[in-house]
Amino acid sequence: MAQIAFIGLGVMGYPMAGHLARAGHQVAVFNRTPARAEAWVAEHGGTSASTPALAAADAQFVLTCVGNDDDVAEVVLGPSGVLAAMAAGATLIDHTTASADLARQLAHQTAERQIGFVDAPVSGGQKGAESGQLTIMCGSDDPVTYDRARGVMSAYARACERLGDAGSGQLAKMANQIAIAGVLQGLAEAINFAQRAGLDIEQLVEVISKGAAGSWQMENRSATMARDEFDFGFAVRWMRKDLHIALTAAERNGARLPMTALVDQFYAQVVQRGGDRWDTSSLIHLLHQP
Fold first, then answer.
1. What is the pLDDT of residues 7-54, one digit of tens each?
2. One of 127, 173, 210, 241 is an active-site residue; which one?
3. Catalytic residue check, 173
4. Which terminus, N or C, of the chain has the lesser number of Cβ atoms within 10 Å?
5. Distance (Å, rounded) from C-alpha 86 to C-alpha 57?
């Protein structure tokens, strides 16, 4: 069992940190809204800290799960960030979906302090975090560091794989989000078409989900999409952030992402309709109400 600091208790981080506590680790938490950290401690035990650095003091592993590149930089590199307190031999694991450039920067700065680093964005959404069934895509310059980190992440991982050096985890997450964007748009069009054709959506999904069209999105989102229910799940605002990261990376490596760019424009229209916090399956709203 390890001494762990967990920074960021959002819809993903809160249950992930809870799995670590239930696995027997000693967990100290930090959240920008202190009441959220206090609620976590009341539920899971452990301790809360007033700064990331205080949470990270004496920790063998420090895990971050915040919003974007700027948030990561603040809680890691800022005056009260975790690197101000982490000791040589400790390991930093970043679960934030961020840029590969930031991951490489963190790998360099942690290496200078003899601290291990793993960029480890996750997929599986809130449901996967709560059930401890996340897919974790990892990058690390040191396979030994990754192996140590994997032992900690196993508390909430369905699958965990190192895909290369630092930044590789973030690049893999970009590919993941590109694929999801296409699947959701295709599913939205299929459901809208079927509804207008007079088909029973529940019956339809029961049949086609068993074939080549089947997907996680179909099994978990088709029913709510058919009912225009989007007040849950992974918010459009965060998907747009992720797609922007992927589109920026594609400009550098020469990859063509025409479908991704189009779906991002559709999400911009969802935002204009007030759907900034709607689930990503809300693409169908544009088809239901053109």
1. 999 999 999 999 999 999 999 999 999 999 999 999 999 999 999 999
2. 173
3. yes
4. C
5. 6
